[in-house]
Specification:
Number of strands: 15
CATH superfamily of the largest domain: Bira Bifunctional Protein, Domain 2
Shape: elongated
Strand order of the largest sheet: 6-9-10-15-14-13-12-11
Low-confidence stretches: none
Number of domains: 2
Structural class: alpha+beta
CATH architecture of the largest domain: 2-Layer Sandwich
Radius of gyration: 27 Å
Mean pLDDT: 94
């Protein structure tokens, strides 16, 4: 059987090739009396390849009836193009029609809005823009694993179903096999002893707690997978299901944690520039004309290290009208983060030593008893890209923080065991993969960098 050629490889060739086979979908077609020019794409790259078919080709009358979106197999010869705009074209010797798309095919040769394309998310990868987004997404997934493998990290699979609330925010999706009527212990409390796990269970918001257990066994580890948050938000920055990159390192303090986060961001952006140039060029030309300048700034800059208190002082002293109030003890909003990165410093920065009152229980308490060894890495256009901390390794301090956070020590007995038996300083962070893709592509809505976005009221596809 003849091996199918990928269009991406054909377009890179240096000399003509006889007797090739390619398969793909029709993007456009122009017919004359004796010739047809068919633009075909197989998803392997941004560019189409032109197929030239003449009336001598078997079943030419049926080929002329093909519509946009139809699938076909083409046998022929790769030759220098006689027209402008492309180096190579295929002179077809034989074509098989795999399927004919209805004339109501919703993707035509015009620019569709992102809002419309979200309603046909099953078809939008066939457009230039979304094909490019998801090729970049695929390449960067591979780069994430390459980055950590080069540095001796071990990849672990943390559970998606958990009884733990890592963030303590309570925005969890409950997992249950209970059918109505739900058994109750009282009018307000569900009897989970009748449920599958005999306890309350939820979809995870983070693999961190599991990663900590393995970091205290294997050294440096990371998780990379989907996480879930039942936050009723319809902003351009939030979806209910998203992917997180979460490294965890034994014998590592906050400084080492910040250094790894900066290195990871620069590595992944550089990888995209070096390996996804054609797809990136589409976004630089049609989505954000400042994209390449922004990415080069992030890669080449030394990131500013700034204590939380100093960041608040800068914001309070800024001659800027913010929608959200700036105050000590309050978390930074996206507009504050973008002001610091885009207007004040004009490059990425790392804010650290946040008030303990706005951070989770597991972050290491500083000597001032007011702040924790937490850090966020902020970048232009996005704001927070990474959030992390040094973890609290001292058993007595951790137990006190859990009580103050309203968490049951009994439910986290296994987590506390890690502090009882050979505890060491350790740290880690989470990088939102979709936010990274937004940064690298210039796409402004998180729904457009994940294949099938899950948002309030939207579970289609």
């Amino acid at each position: 059987m003849m091996k199918r050629q990928k269009i991406a490889n054909l377009l890179k060739t240096e000399k003509p090739i006889e007797n090739i086979l390619l398969k793909g979908w029709i993007r456009t077609k122009r017919d004359s009396k004796t010739f047809s020019f068919i633009e075909v794409n197989d998803g392997s790259c941004l560019k189409n390849i032109q197929i030239v078919v003449d009336e001598k080709t078997p079943d030419y009358s049926e080929i002329k009836k093909l519509t946009t979106g139809s699938a076909l197999a083409v046998w022929g010869n790769l030759v220098p193009s006689q027209g402008g705009g492309q180096k190579w074209e295929v002179q077809a010797t034989k074509m098989d029609i795999i399927s004919v798309a209805l004339e109501t095919f919703p993707l035509q040769k015009k620019r569709h809005t992102d809002e419309y394309l979200r309603t046909i998310a099953h078809l939008r990868p066939r457009t230039n823009k979304y094909g490019a987004v998801f090729r970049i997404r695929s390449e960067l997934c591979w780069a994430v694993h390459q980055f950590f493998r080069e540095r001796g990290f071990r990849y672990i699979h943390s559970p998606l179903i958990t009884g733990s609330d890592c963030e303590g925010a309570g925005e969890l999706f409950r997992v249950t096999t209970l059918n109505p009527p739900i058994p109750m212990i009282s009018n307000e409390k569900i009897d989970f002893s009748k449920d599958f796990f005999c306890a309350e269970s939820n979809l995870t918001v983070s693999g961190q707690l599991s990663a900590e257990m393995f970091a205290l066994s294997l050294g440096d580890v990371y998780t990379f997978g989907p996480t879930f948050r039942a936050e009723n938000s319809n902003t351009s920055r939030h979806v209910a299901e998203f992917w997180m990159i979460e490294p965890e390192m034994a014998f590592c303090d906050l400084t080492g944690n910040m250094d790894l986060g900066e290195t990871l961001i620069k590595y992944l952006i550089t990888f995209a520039i070096d390996n996804c140039a054609e797809d990136l060029d589409l976004f630089a030309r049609f989505v954000d004309k400042t994209l390449m300048k922004t990415l080069e700034n992030i890669v080449s800059s030394d990131y500013v290290h700034l204590p939380y208190k100093d960041a608040i002082d800068i914001l309070l002293g800024a001659n800027e009208s913010f929608e959200f109030e700036v105050a000590y003890g309050s978390d930074l909003q996206s507009e504050h983060e973008r002001f610091l990165t885009e207007k004040h410093f004009k490059k990425p920065l790392i804010i650290y030593d946040y008030p303990k009152s706005i951070k989770p229980f597991y972050m290491r308490l500083n000597d001032d008893d007011e702040t924790v060894a937490a850090m966020d890495i902020l970048v232009p256009r996005i704001g927070e890209l990474i959030g992390g901390s040094q973890r609290e390794e001292r058993l007595d301090v951790l137990e006190k923080r859990m009580v103050l956070s309203g968490l049951s020590k009994e439910n986290y007995w296994w987590y506390l065991d890690s502090r009882r038996y050979g505890t060491v300083p350790h740290s880690g962070f989470g990088l939102g993969f979709e936010r990274l893709l937004m940064l690298i592509t210039g796409v402004s809505n998180i729904r457009d960098v994940i294949p099938f976005p899950r948002t309030p009221g939207n579970i289609d596809f």
